[in-house]
Amino acid sequence: MLKPDLLIVGAGPAGMSAAVVAARAGLSVMVVDEQPTPGGQIWRGIEANAGTARGRALGAPYLSGLATVRAFRESGAVYWPSTRVWQIEPTLRTYVTGPDGTLMIQPSAILIATGAQERPAPFRGWTLPGVMTVGAAQILLKAPGTVPAAPVWIAGCGPLALLYAHQLVRLGGAVAGFLDTRMPAPLAGAARLAAGAVLRSGRELAKGAYWYADLHRRAGRYVRGVVDLQALGTDRVEGVRYRTADGRVEEVETSLLLIHEGVVPELHTARSLGCQTRWHAGQAAYVPVLNEWGESSVPGILVAGDAAGIGGAEAAIQRGRLAALRILSRLGRLPAGQEGAEAACRKALARALAPRAFLDRIFMPRENVFLPDDDTIVCRCEELRVRDLRGALSCSVGANQLKAFTRAGMGPCQGRQCAYTVASLIANVEARPMGDVEPFRVRPPLKPVRLCDVASLAEEAAPP
Amino acid sequence: MMASQATTAVIGGGLHGLACALALAVRGQDVVVFERSWVGRRASGATAAGVRTLGRDPAEIALSLVALERWHRIADLVGDDCGFHGSGQIKVAENPAEMESLAERARLTRDMGFDHEELIDAAELRRLVPMISPHCVGGLVARRDGAADPHRTIAAFRRTAEGCGVTIREGIAVTALEPDAGGWRVVTDAGTWQVRHVVNAAGAWGGHVCRMIGEPIRFGYKASMVFVTERLTPMIRPVVSAAGRTLSFKQSSQGTLVIGGGLQGSADLKTGVTQVDFHALAKGAQSARALFPAIGTVQVVRAWAGLEGAPADLLPVIGPSVRAPGIFHMFGFSGHGFELVPVVGEIVADWITRGRSSHDIGAFDVARLSL
């Protein structure tokens, strides 16, 4: 069995940056990632796209990842692409399946750098073919370079929706319309946050404002204050009906509806290991409880990048480095001359996080993202609607019991899609704050795994 | 503070505790169930829910056959069929030596006067389980056995028990049992109750309850693992096990394959936390694939380990306490208690209300485990 000093799950900004620091200091580092090339979601496909027209169209923030990817490639870390971590046991024994089969790894420490997932935001019709998330559409834009043939409708809010629209247009696509679901009210209250953010991260915000202005100019239609959505169609999406804050209801035709309501940390991995989490009201998300180094409540498990709380790529880089420094010092392997490294990371991290509170405030999701109406499917694996869950909640307590009663969260997505909505419903029905609601217990495996891959482990020698 | 009152307190809100509470309520008793977490949280919620008389320890056969008849009419008891299907259970032989051991087992049960286990040849095996690997040579079948839906079963027993007046107190742990004029004081972390009888249905913690009443026993626990696949089209009706392997294999009514058989994970009784060990589970996956070669690429989506009490002889403890009058045991089902749910609660209820039962439970006496 392989026994590296450090196993890093995820080769995005955080994972790669941690690997560089740790491997350069002489640790044996393994980086396991599901994608075929390094970069994570934000820099997906960057080695192939750099120097091409597509790369230029994807923009400077995208291209800026090349330096990190190169440093990672040269760091000496062992890199396993196209490999899935499907289980980590409390002993840190980790199970992976990749091109060379299924293996067990026994590292001394694990850094979870699994990034974010798009916030589940169910609405009526969201499971129809032709409705997809902006994140999924952006993956297609970056990897095979697929630009939707027909103009698309985008609904939602958050930086990624704006960035995607901008990139799509630059790559020759078209935005038929943008249904902006951002709530207008908090902007005024966010003025103080905005002022602080502009002072410290003026360029970042200017970039966002530019995306906004560009979208306004180029989208066929731009509809503000959308408070409710319904995808229409029987076998696939044929249109979208929306309602605005002033009560207007309209329908438009589309064969492709892209949805985005922000991102939340990927917490499945940390929670499966028993790491404590808490409700982060500002980000309306569960986040792991971490110290200033990214150490979780479970010894030997660290979290960095967006999995530690949404902060973006630059924050992820710094958090990855800090986690690596901590692991080095815990193992007594911190090289001389690293005294200044921590301070530099912390300074850069603070700068990267400066606009975050402002962004969190202006992109706070609308209420029915959390509490959709009764007809909405919540658990797509088991086809359960809000109504079914509310019915079951009258005679059970808590998410885990609800799961046993209704099968919500028992399907192949293992609750990734419905956990937030289920927790919100419980909080709503029982008039409890989200922080008091315990989400689904995470059942192993972390990711579905083929039965033959599990079976192949029977041939491996029993671990000590 | 005045202690609350009930005729009988049941410790443990698993299926056996609920079934006993229901039986007592039907017999006119005022019953309270104390469940430390929530109803069905432990073994009852983790079971693969096999309804199996096949291959039972000789001491359990008679009881299991009575229970089986109840399963075939389970709606009469709890108003719901609990997802029960009597599609049979089959133990498969993969070679002549295994076939001979199954034949010997068939002779044993026949000599005891039972006819529920039937030896079948390869052709009949293939008729019952068309997708079984061609190398299998036959099997032993109990045709009226089957499986149920554990969560539906829990919900049905709970609903019926509450409908009959049983009080279920979840999130309450019993911390001490104190003898009290003609009965017991049940001390919980949410007040004290005064009762005449106490039922120990505490599963893996049954031994803890025994210690509370000065009746220490030799007792262990199991953390049997189960894993479940994605949904597939219907392909197998009976529950299949293997003479030479640790395996239990079935397809649920949802279409998922539910694979268990007693492979062990690990557990911590103090915290109640269980852990799946995939390296150990790999043997189960290997066994499943050996018997059903077509399922190799099916995705495993969930796995868990259930915590269950287990005496060394893997037989349950059923009946009155030897040292503490008024205390009655029903725990330690060792991973094969699900099928017995419709009958054991009634036996214990009969002991409590009439001082006897028409079933012989001598083999399950707590005294055999005394320290």
TrEMBL record, chain A:
Domain FAD/NAD(P)-binding: 5-320
Top-level taxon: Bacteria
Coiled-coil portions: none
Gene3D superfamilies: BFD-like [2Fe-2S]-binding domain (1.10.10.1100), FAD/NAD(P)-binding domain (3.50.50.60)
GO terms, molecular function: oxidoreductase activity
All copies of domain SoxA A3, residue ranges: 384-454
A family per Pfam: SO_alpha_A3
This protein's record includes keyword Oxidoreductase: yes
InterPro entries, per the entry: BFD-like_2Fe2S-bd_dom_sf, FAD/NAD-bd_sf, FAD/NAD-binding_dom, Metab_Enz_Cyan_OpOx_G3PDH, Opine_Oxase_asu/HCN_bsu, SoxA_A3
Entry keyword set: Oxidoreductase
Protein name: FAD-dependent oxidoreductase
Organism annotation: Gluconacetobacter liquefaciens
TrEMBL record, chain B:
A Pfam family it matches: DAO
FAD dependent oxidoreductase domain boundaries: 9-351
GO MF annotation, one: oxidoreductase activity
One GO CC term on file: cytoplasm
InterPro entries, per the entry: FAD-dep_OxRdtase, FAD/NAD-bd_sf
Entry keyword set: Oxidoreductase
Protein name per Swiss-Prot or TrEMBL: FAD-binding oxidoreductase
Taxonomic source organism: Gluconacetobacter liquefaciens (Acetobacter liquefaciens)
